[in-house]
């Protein structure tokens, strides 16, 4: 299935979905402005989670979710439940990660039936409506429908793929939501937090956004993204310091002798846990690793490091296929927020950062408040 979906995340397909993301990001700016007019103290996690929910709802499910205008919108509420409620509890999740094959044989499932039925119903209705009315949109759902209807799609390597079932469409749209919503919104929250703590970095990023938009007549075009190099460094540094998944689970494909240690052999089929966040915070690879420093990702510094020392999306053939989309929605959201608002800490800002110890992901413990004022 991964091979079928890889073509939907090529750079060409990202350009296809770009206008949809920008449209939602403009709604984020409007919603943010309404909040700031009433109170300069903003709970960041909630508003950016509604942004990523609307982006993925629009791109993956083909819906106008309206989470930014209504915090109690049904899609947003069910999305939060999908991320927070678990049929098995934390022990069950740990069991599935540790023994995936056994969990499949035991037919263990995470998702609550009501949540699964809700999203399956949305996909069925969307597919039916689009096929009957020949509707096309610049979104992920449209690309999935093309695969379902036997349209040949090429991957980055030139391979041809086709055929996708309705169940596979529903499953992939749901995975898109679960994997892409919370990770992206949390990264945006941490980025804004660090920019509020480091106002010199924030100002440098804002000046870059203003300069790039001026070159493009104040229109945020697809070409703008490649020119926002410093903001890209800000995002990369955020992902280094606050890697969403602190560890990666892999399985050895063959026996592997650890170089320089012949007595240590990773046997074929042995589970391997890669401590990504520990690598990211190792001073051997990143000087002064606890300090937020976007210069860690300047072209010169990146060239000095092995690529496997930076693993927010994994590495190799099993890396996150949605990383391009995730980075795109984060970059667009941050760029438009920085263009319109200045961020600083307030009396309720978490300093130092505290983490939710019950979450498998790296997330703040509780709300994340910042002061925001119009530029």
From TrEMBL:
Cofactor: heme
The UniProt record lists the keyword Disulfide bond: no
Keywords per UniProt: Endoplasmic reticulum, Heme, Iron, Membrane, Metal-binding, Microsome, Monooxygenase, Oxidoreductase
SUPFAM superfamilies: Cytochrome P450 (SSF48264)
GO terms for MF: heme binding; iron ion binding; monooxygenase activity; oxidoreductase activity, acting on paired donors, with incorporation or reduction of molecular oxygen
Gene3D superfamilies the UniProt entry points to: Cytochrome P450
Keyword Transferase: no
Pfam families in alphabetical order: p450
Topological category with respect to the lipid bilayer: Peripheral membrane protein
A GO CC term attached to the entry: endoplasmic reticulum membrane
Binding-site list for heme: 320
Subcellular location: Endoplasmic reticulum membrane; Microsome membrane
CDD domains from the UniProt entry: CYP6-like
Family: Belongs to the cytochrome P450 family.
Protein name, entry field: Cytochrome P450
Biological source species: Calliphora stygia (Common brown blowfly)
